[in-house]
Amino acid sequence: MSTTTRIITGALASTLLIAGTAQADREDWPQSFTVGTASQGGTYFVYGSGWANLVADQLDISGGGEVTGGPTQNLALVHGGDVAFGLTTMGPAADAVDGKSPLAPGVAMDNVCALFPMYETPFSITTLSDSGITSISEIPDGARIGFGPAASTSDTYFPAILEELGVDFERRNGGWSDLGGQLQDGLLDVVAFAAGIPIPAVSQLEVQTDVNIIEFTEEEQQKVMDKFPVSDFSIPASTYTTLDHDARAVSMWNFAIAGCDLPEDFVYEVTKVTMENNDKMMDVHRSAATTIPENIKYNTVLPFHPGAARWYEENGYEIDPALIKQ
């Protein structure tokens, strides 16, 4: 056998060994995965479906997003193993861990682990300009307000927020696209959105008609922060063509979640793809500007999946050991 032949044969054997090892490492991986998102027309659906496609392409595995009722339902779906991954907010997550989910009262959802920070969800209010409503205090008694899908973060918290601010209303539910259409058709007076910005349904409305994006006063903002698990937020004027100044609001952090029983190596690779490709995540949705490891500190509720925690720790990001699933 010639020297060249021996080199080629050795290189081929090495390649086959590496490929075989990589294949062996993936033996316990699922053949496909699903990400629980929310209704079409909302940021969760765009973000979650795009993220699923990125992971599927990078890891050469079949995956995609699924329309759901949003954060509260996603916690239940992930806990039950109906979907591998989901998107949620910290308020519903805290309720789920404490056994206070409206979908499963008394059930502490302990098979839900944190993956990575997504973005803050602003609570914002949109009306048609011809409604004459320019502030929260001007929302008339009995106003028909759309709060998003039933049991979503918006539907869970926004009605209580508006009640705290003295608003009397009729409560309506539906997907964001449907509610935007109902607002335009005069079937609703207001839509109270809790979704990442820019909200596709609002951007579409701006193209078709004149809208008002209602901001909180300083007093309203402080009153809501004192009562609910939200923080101060400012919607940048550049978010919508309607805005000519930053709009005062409140917000809640979103995190991607995973079933705690998913293989550690699989979740490690999913986390690696996500955290090391922020430019590609930004292509999915520009709210992913905050989908960075520095923001893992905003999760103080859910245990991190060991696979995710391993990537963070290898890259210099500390996590309290008590907040890692054992």
UniProtKB/TrEMBL annotation:
Keywords: Signal
Signal peptide: 1-24
Source organism superkingdom: Bacteria
Transmembrane segments: none
InterPro entries for this protein: TRAP_TAXI (IPR011852)
PANTHER family for the chain: SLL1037 PROTEIN
Protein name: C4-dicarboxylate ABC transporter substrate-binding protein
Highest classification ranks of the organism: Bacteria, Pseudomonadati, Pseudomonadota, Gammaproteobacteria, Oceanospirillales
